[in-house]
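Example record for the data management plan.
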Amino acid sequence: MVRLEGSGEAARPPTPTGGRTVSSDIPSPGSIPRNCDATYRGNLGNKPERRQTRSGGEIVRARLAVNMAASSIPAEERDRFTEWLTVVCFAPAQMDRLERCEKGELITVNGPVTWREYTPDEGEPRIEHTIVGEYVRSASASMPPDAGGPPHAHERNLPV
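Corresponding structural encoding:
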């Protein structure tokens, strides 16, 4: 908020036109702001599952572990820096892409991110982050099916 000169009133700064904005009045828990578009790369925590919605449609849902730790952090401490997100896909092509992935597979997901607070039966409040997969890509999707890994520069006819 900005104070207006000569008055005790607070005024909002001008809102930029176009695009999405995030209200600064609502604090965002964790490192992910509410209602933003983002791209995450991480490992699937489970095999994606296809489910029916209440309205009769279908979604594919999975959990994604995104490691936020710098490479200088010792491996045994990196779990503290892992963010867990729920990935949901509604578009048929993205549902199929996500459903073909396996637990532990490295994927990239792009789309809007939201969060919600909830309290499970255990009673401790938690926050769930969800990304709607408008674009889903598996790291293995760019490799030929018979390849054991990405090709080396000399195998792709690139300068070494």
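Summary line stored alongside the record: The radius of gyration is 21 Å.
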